[in-house]
Design goal:
- The protein is mainly alpha-helical.
- The chain is built from eight helices and three strands.
- It has two domains: 100 residues, Winged helix-like DNA-binding domain superfamily/Winged helix DNA-binding domain (Arc Repressor Mutant, subunit A, Orthogonal Bundle); 93 residues.
- The chain has a three-stranded antiparallel sheet.
- A hairpin with a 7-residue loop joins strand 2 and strand 3.
- Helix 1 crosses helix 4 and helix 6 runs antiparallel to helix 7.
- The longest helix is centred in the middle third of the chain and has 28 residues.
Length: 212
């Protein structure tokens, strides 16, 4: 089935990383996994293992964005399939990159959904969970600071993702610590009675609702 028959291919972060690695040169999955680790791309995409790479490449092959370049046979080892990017893959890779850089829609992190339902927990329980998240964020921030500090010889272009991670993580950590402090001091709180009153005020009975 041609790629045109499938419609516009749905973009994915891991798919974009794979396409750009193949843009540089044809390679096999084992080397690709090593490059992802060496270049720190496992810090920006979810690579659960080599299996996720195979799944992504299989999808890119079906879409006509990647093709089999050759099969390398080494005595005593399994054959290694070398993949290459296609002309369509080069075009789509740039399209995905432009869309991911410019678009803000379609991103729905779990944390935001959980924050919208924070009242589903007791205030003390909610504060405890946010404190745990703050501890993890502080550790992530320290790790990012170390990445930026330990590689001063790298051109800034190759450290932009760590700069972004530092800014975003620091901002989230500051916000969470503020919410935790408000919860601790009682400036932010709720109860079942208060929630019921709030729900009633925000959802008045529908006068048009038929009597049951």
């Amino acid at each position: 089935m041609a790629m045109a028959d499938l419609g516009a291919p749905k973009r994915s972060s891991l798919g974009l990383i794979v396409l750009w690695m193949l843009w540089e040169e044809p390679t096999h999955v084992y080397r690709m996994q090593k490059l992802i680790e060496q270049q720190g791309k496992d810090r920006v995409v979810n690579v659960r293992g080599r299996g996720s790479l195979y799944q992504t490449i299989d999808r890119l092959v079906r879409l006509g964005l990647v093709e089999v370049h050759e099969t390398v046979r080494v005595e005593g080892r399994p054959d290694r399939i070398v993949y290459a990017i296609t002309d369509s893959g080069r075009r789509v890779a740039r399209e995905w990159l432009r869309e991911m850089l410019s678009s803000t829609g379609g991103e729905f992190p779990e944390f935001i959904a959980a924050v919208s339902l924070l009242f589903g927990l007791e205030p003390d329980d909610a504060r405890t969970q946010l404190e745990l998240r703050a501890e993890k964020l502080a550790a992530e921030l320290a790790d990012t600071e170390a990445q930026l500090r330990d590689y001063p010889w790298l051109p800034r272009l190759f450290l932009l993702e760590e700069e972004y991670r530092r800014s975003v993580t620091a901002a989230e950590l500051s916000w969470i610590r503020g919410v935790v402090e408000d919860l601790r001091e009682g400036r932010l709180t709720w109860s079942e009675e208060w929630l019921l009153e709030a729900f009633t005020s925000f959802h008045p009975p529908d006068d048009n609702e038929e009597d049951s």
